[in-house]
Amino acid sequence: MKLRDPRHGPAATWPAVLAALLLAGLALLLAQHAAAELGWTGADSWLRSAAAALHDSEPSVWVLIGGAAAVLLGLWFLIAAFLPARRSHLPADGDGDLWISPRAVEALASDAAVRAPGVLHADSELRRRRLKVKALLAPGREAAVADILETVGERLQGLAELEVAVQAKEAHR
User: Fold this and answer.
1) pTM score, whole prediction
2) Of 1, 163, 7, nearest to 96 (Cα)?
3) What is the rounded CA–CA span in Å between residue 132 and residue 148?
4) Start and end of every DUF6286 domain (predicted)?
5) Spatial contact of 114 and 133, defined as CB atoms under 8 Å apart
């Protein structure tokens, strides 16, 4: 049985929360309008006041800006609704249903790079399928880049197919 891929939350989560808050505000505005029109409160309707303030023969610049902003926000909501959620883990090679987190891959790569001869310190960063290893080399160890590639490749073998790049800098004496 194939399980679902581990994924982050959908891209439409925040637009949906924002839309829900906007709808709640609209419901509050309509409830206040209804209460004012039915005489349940002594205050004037906020909706009537807003409509009276907007009664102009020509549209103002602020109305045009607000309309353009509403169109852009609507397009953003529409695009976010159709974007699939991104994977949160990388599939490991093999027949099983095994997944590994990007942070675990970074930790394994950094540990492997530090164990390479001539490496003083290493950090790794995984973006999509590209792993960048930054290493600080001991003085006079320029040839350690090949050793870093080899040790990192051996450590990550069988976990995931990644493009590994090494950026090495020699420490000052």
Assistant:
1) 0.59
2) 1
3) 11
4) 72-160
5) no
What span, in angstroms and rounded, lies between the C-alpha atoms of 19 and 49?
24
Instruction: Please give the domain boundaries of the chain with CATH numbers for all domains.
Output: 13-82 (no CATH), 91-170 (3.30.70.1350)
* Three-state secondary-structure class, residue 153: helix
**Whether 127 contacts 164, CB under 8 Å:** no
Q: What gap in Å lies between CA 107 and CA 116, rounded to an integer?
A: 15
In 10 A of CB 10, how many CB atoms?
A: 15
pLDDT in tens, 4-58: 777 777 777 777 888 889 889 989 988 998 988 888 888 888 888 877 777 766 7
Query: Which amino acid appears at position 73 of this protein?
Result: L
